[in-house]
Design brief:
By secondary structure, the chain is mostly helical. The chain has one domain. It contains 6 helices and no strands.
Length: 129
């Protein structure tokens, strides 16, 4: 089965199942064992986190975005067709292909580290369950 076949099949899934698939794929993207967060990347992530905290109205949580997507999927608005989605997907793949693999892996690992730190911070603030 080709990547195109998988993409076509994934796009045929109901929106709820596509969101679950997207989350599963995202969760499976783990950083390499030898990853080291560079000071430059840490500074960039810290700056973005500060920006997000300073302007909370400009960002949304995954839960909020998921709810928006689900609401949109069930409205009578014109939906984006599979061809448009596939074209957007191809465009994203073309741009992503230009990113060096090492940079891509470092970015994913940094996101994972930030998420772990955010969860730990929340645990400290909220206390034990």
């Amino acid at each position: 089965m080709t990547k195109a076949d998988l993409t076509r099949l994934a796009l045929e899934l109901p929106i709820e199942e596509r969101l679950i698939l997207a989350q599963t794929l995202w969760d499976s993207a783990s950083p390499p064992e030898d990853f080291t967060l560079t000071p430059e990347l840490r500074n960039l992530l810290d700056a973005r986190l500060l920006e997000a905290e300073a302007n909370p109205d400009t960002s949304v949580t995954w839960e909020e975005m998921k709810a928006r997507l689900l609401r949109r999927a069930f409205r009578d608005e014109p939906r984006v067709g599979p061809e448009e989605i596939a074209a957007s997907f191809r465009e994203i793949e073309e741009v992503a292909a230009k990113i060096p693999q090492e940079e891509h892996e470092r970015f994913l690992a940094a996101l994972d580290e930030v998420e772990r730190g955010s969860k730990e911070q929340a645990r400290r603030q909220l206390g034990p369950p």
